[in-house]
């Protein structure tokens, strides 16, 4: 396998007759009055400087809650992107899609066709928990699972605080159409746009065994594991994807490990449209982890394989021939999160992040693989947007 870098105290006033107020010296009385007026004026000015208060239009009878403040925050929260023109296309000049990366304090936008890289500063998140990173038309969205501020990064503009439904807490997974996502609500999933507007579409949420979690099904709907297998939640109801374990999933195909009643097991390729199954030729590596991804064209799967004491590695599996190609990048943990990798829409390239937050690219046909040398900041998540 050919591996090489991609270049790519307050005043007291006394009133009444005093010794200085005797007849013949009236000017002293006027002087005292003048001094009193000056003191009063100074006190008023000082009070206004200490607490000017909000403009009349902004005054409210009740203090807003933390959630309301986060949800109503609008406008830019930083500067616009720093743009670098490379002068040559990237990744073979592939047009029609863009790659995004998120780091601790920045979002990177890579446009392969014109060879352009943009880096936009984004405030650090006030949470160390899971974060949803979705790309849609005109923007990307950074949404923490916890109830802390998240951000949108519109193309060519500064980052903005999330508003509307997106400013609330809970998981956000990709929706069936570009620029949409499913928000988890009590007893249901609600479809929203990445602009924060509700789409008035909801799916009933099943009761998950043992408080299980939901993940993307690769085709724009929620996927959960329960009694008897793994299931996708659709507008026409719940559909079982497999009675076994999902190893990798994508829009057109899935890779699963299934066993019959006598525990005779096999790795099968599942056609998402028809449900048809066929055995995968060859044998998969041992210590294989669930949570992989199938390419958009359905031809390959990216799977995580643990190799103690070394960090886990990603293996590229040909779903037609069963051929196994291990990739160089060492992954941070044994949990191969779906935001740690991204496929180009045509399946030609697989992008992933290594343990140091560096970007790697693999050309799936030739197997050419290496780090993407563009001087990028450390990244933690990836997303792809089709044009």
From TrEMBL:
- Stretches with biased composition (Low complexity): 56-76
Under the heading Gene3D superfamilies, the entry gives: TolB, C-terminal domain
Region: Disordered, residue numbers: 1-20, 51-76
Q: Which UniProt keywords apply?
A: Membrane, Transmembrane, Transmembrane helix
| Superkingdom, natural source | Bacteria
Signal peptide annotation = none
TM segments? 27-45
Output this protein's name: Dipeptidylpeptidase IV N-terminal domain-containing protein
Origin organism of this chain? Plantactinospora siamensis
